[in-house]
Amino acid sequence: VDASTFSPKEAAEIIGVSESSIKRWVDAGHITVHRTKGGHRRIALRELVRFVRAESIPIVRPDLLGIEAVSRTEPRELTDSMLFSLLAQGNGPSVRRALVGGYLAGRSVADLVDDVVAPAFEKLGTLWTHDDDGVFIEHRAVTLCMEALHQIGLIMPERNGQTPVMVGGAPSGDPYILPTLAAALSLRDAGYLAVQLGADTPPTAFAHAVNEHRPRMVWVAMTSLQRASTLQRFIDELADLLSDAPAEIVVGGQASRRLSHHQNAGITILSSMRELVFHVREVVAS
Ligand code: B12
Predict the structure, then answer these.
(1) Per residue in 61-99, pLDDT tens?
(2) Choice from 223, 226, 235, 267 to test ligand 1 binding pocket (greatest atom count within 8 A of CB)
(3) Global confidence as pTM
(4) Which of 181, 245, 191 lies closest to 218 in space, CA to CA?
């Protein structure tokens, strides 16, 4: 995906405008291009994606984008019930089209996760209680959703070395991958670099990552039904290991409700991806 670039003519076809419009936007600086040795303009896929999202331009020939064809139905209207059905059916291409389409239509990753993905999984989470198939459907759905989020990650703008870095993952014993992946992509979408350590990450691994990447913030996504005392021990150990680092600890996820706020002074407990993005903007600005 990284290597794909388009000529102004191809870009024009993808978004259904004339080639001269594209050239005009390039000359006016609205679209960044690089030049081939022969002096021809080339537009990177990530740049074209940034442009259509910023300008709310519909994509008329998604097939030409090279990323899997994107939904032609109104992606802005993607709801949690629609995603729930696609996930329950195990329809991978449609799940990717729906989520990537929502992103291309200009929705932020945080909005998609808070309003579509999380409520769709909440519905999915009730299936295993009535039906043996529920467990397999849930596992398959997690993988399909990871693939879709990963695809969004591949078409996001790339950040340079000056960008503030965040590090995060799920705590020891917590197998949940989507919450921490969603946090990483929400942060990347908001313009930061995110180093994601994945599920079941011990405090010492967080500490090593912090040492290497020097993040402004560390997120902990806790979902697994562990005892409050186990979760608290994890946070205390992490806070202890990071006591010399200038990184703030932000905790979220379903199990974070089990932590008491007064035992966690100095640590921020948040409940959604939008809050996470909002909070990080404040941390970075301060
Ligand atoms: C997928 C899933 C699994 C998968 C996970 C696979 C994987 N590799 O990730 C597997 C199969 C492993 C699993 C296992 C179990 N699960 Co489960 N699982 C789910 C399910 C369906 C979705 C969770 C998910 O990924 N959601 C997507 C994320 C993005 O949404 P979210 O978690 O709601 O996150 C929101 C906020 O919390 C917040 N947030 C999340 N993380 C962070 C981080 C930060 C920093 C911030 C700021 C915010 C934030 O942002 C999101 C809002 O946009 C939920 C259903 C549900 N209601 O959530 C059940 C659910 C969590 N599981 C449940 C249960 C009971 C289990 C099992 C005990 C089942 C069993 N009998 O084996 C085991 C226990 C595993 C363990 N060790 O803990 C219950 C928990 C019940 C409870 N809380 O009392 C639920 C609620 C299902 C249900 N309705 O019964 N599960």
Answers:
(1) 877 877 665 555 555 589 999 999 999 999 998 999 899
(2) 223
(3) 0.92
(4) 245
